[in-house]
Amino acid sequence: MFAFQNKKKLLRLCCATLKQRPFLEALLEEPDVADLLRDDAINGNSELAWIVLYEFLLGSEGLKASKRILSAVGQRSSAIHRQRDALVSSGRGPVGEDEAASVPATIPRYARVNTLKTDLSTVLKQLTDDGYEIVDCSSKRMTRSKYREVVGGLDEHHVMVDGDIPDLLVFAAGTQLHTSWMVDEGHLILQDKASCLPATCLQPEPGSHVFDVCAAPGMKTSHLAALLQNNGKIWSIDKTKDRVDTMKGLLERSGVAISSVFCGDFLRTDIYDKKFSKVRYALVDPPCSGSGIIKRMDHITDEAPTDSYRLNSLGNLQAMILKHALKLPNLERLVYSTCSLYERENEAVIDEVLQSEAAEHFELIKALPAWKHRGRKGFPFARMCLRSSPAKDLTNGFFVAVFQRKSALANGE
What is one GO biological process annotated to this record (predicted)? Predict the structure, then answer.
């Protein structure tokens, strides 16, 4: 097998292999090449066969593998080259570098300045020292179309400050920031703009208590902590232990000092427990289809659309979680969000909850009023909800709704 100490190198190999998937599958249409799958070294693993063939024919360093794999490929070398030549002659050869690099990249790279460790001006100075040019849009009231034009004109040496989310930076699509020391040390957090919308809409006051429901992997918890200025309390719950462990690491790296993280089922959580009595804000980002997330490899994988049964199951779960959260005794404001495009997980959930006893003392307020992209027409509350999409907003697909307690509204909050 392959031995990879460098995970980034392994990721690049996997992505490069997937981009050549049609060619590699065509290679395996040749019976003498397909015989490779029956070799004990491959043992029927077609994904392993793709990687082996990619490295053998297209890898920059040639095939580096175990003796068993090298022997298996060597025995079929003539057949592999023969099929490769036949495919090239018929126009079905490997795609060139330009074509292989043309993975859809409709949204820019976003990075949130972690104000728990630094500030915007310090980060911008560091980026300038690193050779970035700051695109100044502060003096312009940009339309959405103008914003898309400016962002589309960014190159790898440009950075701009987002106009909607405080402390959010915008880089050209594909900008590689993973190796930056600022990312490693938690000064910059790689977070899509849409993922920053829920905490921005919740806008908790420093010193207050917040419940972050289904909180892992912790991006939104870290954003909430920054808005609270590490002053207050965040109860962060998630059902999956592995994700909770990941969240703990992210929050520690981000400098979050006010989060109490625990693994558990929120629907089984006693929201009337005395320790939650000071919770005034809640963020509910429940499990969803993830249909709004732009996956750079969607066009070369076999991911199937979400079926109606799963959507209904998710919608029912989401409504139950939202209703449970609204019962927090001293709750004043709650944000419901998903990274889904489906009405069933968004407006339909809000519609159901608004008609339930759980929302008796709440009503929707307009999520981020300056945002132009609103909810789906056909629902009376659509203008109160926020949607984002790659085409309109250059973000992942997201949905946000904000519930406010009526008594709080009456008091002018």
Answer: rRNA base methylation
